Amino acid sequence: MRSRPLTRLLTAALCAVGMLGVAGLSACTEAPASTSTKVTLGFSAWPGWFPWQVAQEQGLFAKNGVEVELKYFDSYTDSLNALSTGAIDANSQTLNDTLASVSGGAKQTIVLVNDNSTGNDKIIAREGVTSVADLKGKKVAVEQGAVDHYLLLLALKEANLTEKDIQLVPMLTDAAAAAFVGGQVDAVAAFAPFTTTALTRPGSRAIATSAEFPGAIPDHLVVKADLVKDRPQVVQGLVNTWFATQKWIKDNKDAAIGIMAKRGAVTPDDYKSYDAGTTIFTRQQNLDAFTPGTTPQHLNHQARLIVDFITGTGLAKEKPSLDSLFNDQFVKAVPE
């Protein structure tokens, strides 16, 4: 059993014999764990996270015992920073971006796998650029340090290239897609729904996608580590809501697509085209992913690969600790 710090032991002993006096009485009373059900949840433009909008509009958070301020970020990077600085309690983000945050000292815990990207992250190039190898010397726009920068580096490595072989143009993802359409760059690495924008450029095509790197981009519900410790009932409510939302979407598909397409600022038909590129995880797929293993479906294995990659390429300076990063207790507690 882990022992309590000496100062806490001494305080407990003095409280027991009444030696702290009036000024020390507050030290004799343990602060009760918070029972507040209010939480701020961040999300941004990704098909695997738009179900949170459905949850809000259908009152599913309240039905699962949590009061949620759902905060939409136009910039994915801003959502990462908000969780890292404690401005929000939970966020929707990828494994590699979570690892990058943890390597910088953030205390975060992954409690749910929303989905795997199976094609909705793409490297899209102009006419005449038909492969990743053709990117050598070309201008490529990408949100530096975020998920599609990681995809770009993976694709370059597979083509025996490095970032030094291209002209990297760092931009937020929405601006990067717009710059590509405007002819300012030769290629863009982006995620849906911004891929829809990028592909409006005549002659453009995807030359690599996340489907070619199975398991490399899992998307998660990530919470502040203190939230797990201090208000586990809130975390459970969020996880329960996620699975309740998936059931509602299954039973009300057209209505759900309408809600999610509106949030993504795309047409329902465009949104339907994202289905194959985002694989929403079931409860069992969650449990399988959280189970330690040595294949791409196992989060611990994928995390080790990502850590080696992001440190080796300079996306992170320090190797983050994987201790307590993954917590499957809430998925396990979801009613089957």
Q: How do the strands line up in the largest sheet?
A: 2-1-3-10-4-11
- Secondary-structure element string: HEHHEHEHEEEHEHEHEEHHHHEHHH
How many β-strand stretches? 11
Report the structural category: alpha/beta
Termini Cα gap = 33 Å
Shape: globular
Largest β sheet strand count, sense and barrel closure: 6 strands, mixed
| CATH overall fold name of the largest domain | D-Maltodextrin-Binding Protein, domain 2
Q: What's the helix count?
A: 15
Tell me the fraction of residues in β-strands, as a range: 15-25%
Helix content: 40-55%
Protein name: NitT/TauT family transport system substrate-binding protein
Family: Belongs to the bacterial solute-binding protein SsuA/TauA family.
InterPro entries: ABC_SsuA_sub-bd (IPR010067)
Pfam families: NMT1_2 (PF13379)
Summary?
The chain has 336 residues and is α/β, with parallel strands linked by helices.
Features:
336 residues, alpha/beta, D-Maltodextrin-Binding Protein, domain 2, five-stranded mixed beta sheet, 15 helices, 40% helix, globular, signal, NitT/TauT family transport system substrate-binding protein, ABC_SsuA_sub-bd
Q: What report would you give on this structure?
A:
By secondary structure, the protein is an alpha/beta fold. It has two domains: 38-116 and 217-332, 3-Layer(aba) Sandwich (D-Maltodextrin-Binding Protein, domain 2), CATH 3.40.190.10; 121-212, D-Maltodextrin-Binding Protein, domain 2 (3-Layer(aba) Sandwich), CATH 3.40.190.10. Helices cover 40% and strands 18% of the residues. It has 15 helices and eleven strands. Strands 2-1-3-10-4-11 form a six-stranded mixed sheet, sandwiched between helices. Helix 6 (147-158) links the parallel strand 6 (139-142) and strand 7. The two termini are 33 Å apart. Mean pLDDT is 90; it is low at 1-33.
